[in-house]
């Protein structure tokens, strides 16, 4: 979802050229169905290469941003430096979301397992590189609210920047950056633990073959697109055949996987 939205933004933003957008946000453009297919790794080796590449690119970007921030030596940071943080995070998120798709839909269990392992690692790296990186937080704190390029939209642009910067600083402070070091370390450890548990939970849900049988009447109130996507209970391999027969030919099988769960 993140990948599609980011790529859509790159390809459809009307105010700048495609070439300029590609230089701003380094993600592949989607022009054909084949280019969509090429986004997703087909083997464990390809997946590991994608994960390692995402990690290396994000670390390189953040290291450069942090060094630029330290070089200011207490002076005000330019708005463009904070913007680089956001773009680096967006690129990283786009690459990670591809791995999340593989984790959820790949037919090969070995590939799904590799994606799960990579996803936990990359989510932890995201915490270290972005949301819990105190050097990155200092960059945002050092950015003044202006000036902005002169022109008819200057006032609107200034207000947008002010809102964005205030929102980003508040987001970092909600992540614990106002806490003493020891408490902050506890917050970071808890975030990583919750990330791992959440991924493990969703994996267990997706792998669970538990199947319940319902009549269409019993599913009243369930969104129609979900009901239409359910298999007939008689055709579902893990549904109780006796219960399916008892509830009639129109009985439906409901699994534990997303989105039915």
From TrEMBL:
GO biological process: peptide metabolic process; proteolysis
A single MF term (Gene Ontology): metalloendopeptidase activity
InterPro entries, per database record: Neurolysin/TOP_dom2, Neurolysin/TOP_N, Pept_M3A_M3B
Name under which the protein is recorded: Uncharacterized protein
Taxonomic lineage: Eukaryota, Discoba, Euglenozoa, Kinetoplastea, Metakinetoplastina
